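Sequence only, no structure available. Ideas?
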Amino acid sequence: MSKNHFAKYLLLLAALCPWVATGHAQTVTPTYQNFVPPAGFAVDAGEPSIGADWNSGKVIFQAGLETDRVTISGSPAAATWEKASPTTSAASLDPIMFTDSTTGRIFVSQLAGACSLSSFSDNDGTSYTPIAGCGVPAGIDHQTIGGGPFAPSVVPRLPPPVGYQHAIYYCSQDIVDASCAVSLNGGLSFGVAVPIYSLLDCGGLHGHIKVGPDGTAYVPNKNCGGGNGIAAVVSSGDNGLTWTVHVIPGSSSGDSDPSVAIASDNTVYFGWHGANGHPMAAVSHDHGATWANMSDVGASLGIQNVAFPAMVAGDGNRAALAFLGTPTGGNAQDTAGFTGVWHLYIAHTYDGGATWTLADATPNDPVQRGSICLGGTACGNDRNLLDFIDVTVDKQGRVLVGYADGCIGPCVNAAPNSFTALGAIARQSTGKGLFAAFDGTF
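Reply:
I predicted one. C-alpha cells follow.
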C-alpha cells in the first residue's frame, strides 16, 4: 500500500472510529442497578450519606435520624436493609455520616445547635459508642465529619494514639467563618477548633471534608475569592493546624455545594455546579495550588441544569462525579415555570479528567419533575431533596450513590411530581470501576 493510500485509510478509519484518531481505546459506558428499601425504611431521606465498609462489604446508608446497614449480594444482586441507628440520633438540625472505609468505623453526627450528638460504631451499626460531638468553638450550621491518615506535619503536634490510626475532623459553618477541629483518638474527643476561612476569603456554606492518603485535608467551597462565586478547596497539610484557600481560576459556581475527592496518588478531583447550570470538574496534582482539565462533564448528553454534585476517586487517573441533572435549560428553581425531568447521572474518568464518560443511572425512572429549590428554608415543596447526595466506592471499585427519589408512583410516567424523598442506592453493575486491579470482575 502506498503512503498516500495508507494515509487515506487512516483518515477513513478515524472517521468511522474516532477513538482511534485520539489514541484512546473506546470506553464502555458503565451501567447501574438501583436498590429501593422495603416499606418503612428511609422514607424521609433528603441529604443522605453513604459509606462502604471494605472489611465487611456492608453498605451504610444514613438520612435524617435513620441509619441503615445494607447487604448487597447475589447475581442478579439483591439488597437486604436493616435498621442500625444509634441512640444519639434522637434529634437533629442536620444529619451527616462518615464511614472510614479501611478501618470500617462509622461516625454518625446529628447537629444539635452549636454542637452535635454523635456516636461511632466498629461493627456496622450493631452497637455504638457515644463520642464528643464537636470541637470548641463550633459553628451552628452544616457540619461535616471525615477522616484519614495523619499528615507527617512539619509543625509538631501530639502523636496519634495507639487506639486509632486515623485523624478525624469535625468542621462547621458560622456566621463570619468556618472552623475545623481534629480528634487524635478516633473521635472520642476533639481539640480546639481552628478557623479555616473568614468572610474575607469565602462565603456561603462549605461542602464535606475529605482526607487524602498523605494526610492532607480538603474542604470545598463554592463562593471564594472574597465571596465572588469562585470555586475553591481549603486545605491543611499539617493535621488541621493551618489552612489555605486555593481557588480554581476561571470557575464560577451555581447554588449547590461543591465536592472534592482524593485519589490513591493524592490527585485531587473537584466537582461543582457551574454558574451556567452545568456539571463541572477540575483536577489538581499539587494539593489544589494549580488546576487542569476543567471540563463540562454533562456535555455529551446535553445536561443544562444540575443539582448536588458528589465526587469520589480511586486510582490516580480514575474518579466519578454523581449529580442530579436534566437536559432542560432555564431557571431550574422556577417553581411555576420549570418543567425539566431530572435523572441521576454519574460521569466517570479513566484518564485523569482529560475525558469523561457519562451514564444515566436512572434511565427509566426520574428522580424529580419540575423545579429543585436550592434556596434553603425559604423554598416550597420543591425542597423535598434538601441540599446534597453522596457517593462512595467499594473495595472492588464499584461506585455507589446514595440519593433521595422525589418522583415515585404515577410521577414516574407523567407529572405531577410526588415531592417525596425516598432513599435509594445506585450501585455500579458493569463497566470499569475506580480500581484497575478489579477491571472485568463485575
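The chain is about 5% helix and 40% strand.
Hope that gets you unstuck.
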